[in-house]
Amino acid sequence: MNLRAPAILLASRHQGETGAIARLLTADHGLIAAYVAGGRGRQMRAVMVPGNRVSVELTTRSANQLPFARLELEHSRAALMTEPLPAAAIQWVCGLSATALPERQAYPDLYDALDALLGAIAVAPSARGWVSGLIAYETMLLRELGYGGGALPDAPDWPAQAALLGILERQLSHYLLAGHKGDVMGARRLLTERLARMG
Questions:
Q1: Can you give the residue ranges of every domain in the chain?
Q2: Does pTM top 0.85 for this prediction?
Q3: CA separation for the pair 11, 178 (Å, rounded)
Q4: What is the rounded distance in angstroms from the CA atom of residue 73 to the CA atom of residue 177?
């Protein structure tokens, strides 16, 4: 695989002394894991933040080898990681996407929806401006992966939205995250607790 494309950085973990394994979502190639040389270094620290939109250049030497990635920052959401509620929302949606989506399968609508949700989290003055987008994204993710039922009822006010988030949390835990470590659902519980303080 050799490609250059815009991507959303969903997660990264340390690899070796200075490298990192990044999980990136692209519109046309889906979820891709790749090695980023120097990903733990000072120059890359601001790039390797979940939710950032990047330009990725991937190269692979053999079919059974993890691709090498060069990342260039296109749009940073790093400043939001200092704000508790936006940080919890970004950690949750990125962790959910990185865990639930299969690798190398394109979901262009999910890519666009996630980018729009991250943008809403960045610009809305409060969570009331993006919680309906979160509900829509989680519903779309369940549907795209084959677990979606009928359309959810309208939730015009905060109590109705909170109730829908509870329903979606149970569905996500049961269908998409069953058997996975509790880290991802822990991020959801943290977000739910912080949202509950709004009510």
A1: 3-76, 79-196
A2: yes
A3: 20
A4: 30
Return the C-alpha torsion angle 26, 138, 100, 66, nearest 10. 20
21/39 Cα distance (integer angstroms)? 8
- Tell me the CA distances in angstroms from 146 to 36, 88, 107, 128, one per residue in order: 32, 26, 13, 28
pLDDT, tens digit, for every residue of 139-186?
999 999 999 766 677 777 888 899 999 999 999 999 998 876 557 889
Q: Which of 186, 149, 183, 187 shows the shortest CA–CA distance to 168?
A: 149
The dihedral built from the CA positions of residue 29, 34, 39 and 45, taken in this order, carries a sign that is positive
In degrees, rounded to 5, the angle at the alpha carbon of residue 140 between the alpha carbons of residues 1 and 47 is 45
User: In the prediction, which pLDDT does 159 show?
Assistant: 87
The encoded tokens of residue 6 equal 């815009």
Residues 27-77 pLDDT 10s? 999 999 999 999 988 889 899 999 999 999 999 877 778 999 999 999 999
**Of 48, 134, 142, the residue nearest 86 (C-alpha):** 134
CATH for 3-76? 2.40.50.140
